[in-house]
Structures
1.
Amino acid sequence: YLRAYRFQTVDAGDGQTALELLKEHQDIQLVISDYNMPGMDGFTLLEKIRQTHSRAQLPFIGVSGANAPYLSARFIKLGANDFLAKPFSKEELYCRVLNSIEMLEYIAELHKLDETKNRFLGMAAHDLRNPINSISGFSGLLLETLEDKIDPQSLQFLKHINQSSDEMLSIVNDLLDINTIQAGRLEIKRERHNIAAILQDRVSLFDTMASRKQIELVFSSEFDDDVLVDRVRICQVLDNLISNAIKFTPSGGTVNVMLADNKQEVRIGVRDSGPGISSDDQKRLFVPYSRAAARPTGGEQSTGLGLAITKRIVEAHGGQVGIDSSLGKGAEFWVLLPKN
């Protein structure tokens, strides 16, 4: 049937042969499989294919002439894109196959557009970073040297320039990081570091930010040993979590940063006393550019990228990141990192 419509096909007499042909022919774009086959049935073949190929990567159409209504549902549940019941017409087969191939081409086009977007963002962010760095550096230098020599209004303007440039630099760095991650170029260079010392250092760094909002920043540790981590990247994770906790905690609140031994892992927890996060918002938290309904209590800026970057860095370490929260009861973000 399909050769008549100028499709190139490769035939397999059983499931095992089909798997071998998939390894041999990397350009196969669609699998059509009967349920009844010698040795391996269509369900088992589909399960094995889905271990290495998603629905979007390799469409699968299940076929059966057996008088069993559950077969189509079972195929779809296991990851099939479509199902055909025998007997079927040539036209129906052609339409189903064409639909699957068009979906594959549509997804490929979306990937290309996404890559173009990432390249544009990467170039734009890279070109912006140097001038913003200069504005931040020079305005900071002017603040240090002119603080006692200019009028209060000019000093306030200078502080606004410095703060805004720092916020813009943070946004640019987030864009560069997410571009690197989505392009698959995230590098993790692990060395042994005392994780408690790293946390203490990051907490100290945010003392001033917390004090400005009259927030108590508390660090506690039940673990004092070395862990194999990329120090720069783990600092980035901690900075995201601690700064977020301060952003969403109201004046007079408390942020707790905790380190605990968790058998083969260490557990880092950052708990705020903010408004909490709904279960619906929690599902979107680690998706790039997504934001929860709650807003920072001090009007701080947010790109919606920090938690997505955090998740990728933690997973690159072989760890996990998650959240425990309910509305009105604050939120605790936690990270599990393997000790070795």
Note: The radius of gyration is 27 Å.
2.
Amino acid sequence: MILPDKFRGTLTSGDFIEVATAALTPRHSVIARQISDGGEGLLEAVGGRSRPLVVRGPLGKDVESRYHLLRNGDAVVEMALASGLALIGGATKNDPIAASTYGTGQLIRAAIEDGATHIVVGCGGSATTDGGWGALVALGPKIDLPGLKLTALVDVETPFLDAPADFAPQKGATPLEVRFLERRQLAIAGQLLDRFGRSPLGLPKTGAAGGLAGMLYCAGGDLELGFDYLSELLGLEELILEADLVLTGEGCLDNESFNGKVVGRIIERCTYLSRRIVVVVGMIASDFDRNHLSEGVELVSLAERYGEDRSIIHTKECLRDAIGAVSLD
């Protein structure tokens, strides 16, 4: 069973699956699934029918985006495809004060107008720290429709007011801008309380995607770990039970990998279900606490085995060789 996360900047989870499948077949029977913690790659993981839409990007420029309609009636929005940092070329090209979730709101509104009554929003990979205000403006009165259910998929426990300090520097914010965003976030929390009678303050997970999750919560939404939603949707536990070995991996294994992220959650599931697991990663963070790994977890670092430069430049080649060297008997 192949269940990878992405190698950020070098491989998508689909690339990992392609390389691993080629390395393992035809000697072994392989089942592969793309998986997500609610961030990038969510739509590929859930499948369904794609509905393309041009929306306003995080800095105001139109971008081609989409949402998916699933057989179970859910509409799934990947906010990174409308308000994501990758859309503008990374943190150095971002304006963390101006970056807005308006385009994400346009996707949610379109899904509602398409007849969906349960909107699932993946809150990850954002360029924004606007407390979800842009999305709320784009939604307008649509967010008050009777019978509408909202679910925010998150992979962090960060509270609403901590989002600027925890995440804005990764999105290009200076210390002075972080302090401004903190004050603005507090003001937005007050406006959300006035608007919905519900406050995001002090609650875990509400700071995901710069506070978008908090806005969705105030509007009556649920907050759920993205991996758990995908696990149930894909029947992941049953698939793992059918496997003799589970292969997963990501670009960098660090302590945050065990805070609701894909690889950490898969390791936990395999340990609980007594299934052999091999984890192939690009590198291991220098401060990684190996106590996160239960006994029996097999860990392979491409940087340690092939050198950091080669593992980054020739990631596919190194990955193929590393997987081919794993004993599957």
Note: The first strand starts at residue 49 and ends at 56.
